[in-house]
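Practice problem 4.
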């Protein structure tokens, strides 16, 4: 067990292996029952999960913005989450960080027989993806997963999980043959949502809205689009255009709350005309 005064905790010159051991030692100190950090000691798997998800999203955000100067730090924050979970698991004698790294190393080698084995590398990316899915299916069979949809993580963002569920179902033939059928289904779900809004309660409205979102994800899948990435991009575009509105209103001596929809809508169109994307 590392102690706060150990010299290795302050070794900033070591290679990746040294730095990973250093990070694990820092976490050991933070979780030490006698000398550790009270906040870190209070945490458990469930309380840390939101931070893990947040850090993964911040990595994605840095990449999407091309903020390469931030990416190094964001990846470090995500690595900390792995070490934190592994440390708590070790305390419960479930597994440890070495086991986590050993498992992913073994998985990557087994899933790439065309690199680490004797299979041919003369395959397209699409063919390798098919092979990857076959290997994953065999792994799921080894874990005694009974259904096609077993193993799709419940904790994924809803759009990402919908996409994975649909991909799994499509592999066994449960899929529309083209985008035309998906678009028809979107129209049907939109009508059902309108009917629910006009004549049903909040629970039914929410259900129909969820159905519409689910089919929208399917349309993205048929178009070869990642719905999560598309929505992130739309969020970014909305943010930039709304900031344009705020800036223009500020130049007029106003805040958005002092404006009205007609004025803000005109500024929104101006933002589009000025190429704000």
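Answer key:
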């Amino acid at each position: 067990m590392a102690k706060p005064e150990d010299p290795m905790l302050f070794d900033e010159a070591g290679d990746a292996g040294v730095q990973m051991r250093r990070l694990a030692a820092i976490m050991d100190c933070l979780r030490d029952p006698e000398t550790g950090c009270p906040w870190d000691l209070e945490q458990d798997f469930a309380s840390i999960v939101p931070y893990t998800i947040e850090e993964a999203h911040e990595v994605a955000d840095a990449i999407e913005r091309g903020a390469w100067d931030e990416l190094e730090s964001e990846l470090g924050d995500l690595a900390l989450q792995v070490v934190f979970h592994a440390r708590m698991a070790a305390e419960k004698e479930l597994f440890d960080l070495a086991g986590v790294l050993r498992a992913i190393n073994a998985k990557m080698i087994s899933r790439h027989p065309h690199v680490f084995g004797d299979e041919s590398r003369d395959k397209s990316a699409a063919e390798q993806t098919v092979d990857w899915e076959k290997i994953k299916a065999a792994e799921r069979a080894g874990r005694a997963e009974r259904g096609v949809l077993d193993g799709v993580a419940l904790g994924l963002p809803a759009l990402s999980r919908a996409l994975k569920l649909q991909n799994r179902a499509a592999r066994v033939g449960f899929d529309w043959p083209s985008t035309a059928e998906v678009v028809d289904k979107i129209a049907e779900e939109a009508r059902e949502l309108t009917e629910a809004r006009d004549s049903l309660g909040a629970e039914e409205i929410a259900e129909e809205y969820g159905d519409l979102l689910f089919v929208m994800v399917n349309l993205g899948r048929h178009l070869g689009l990642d719905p999560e990435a598309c929505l992130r991009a739309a969020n970014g575009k909305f943010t930039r255009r709304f900031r344009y509105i705020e800036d223009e209103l500020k130049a007029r001596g106003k805040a958005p709350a002092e404006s009205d929809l007609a004025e803000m809508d005109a500024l929104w169109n101006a933002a589009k005309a000025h190429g704000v994307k």
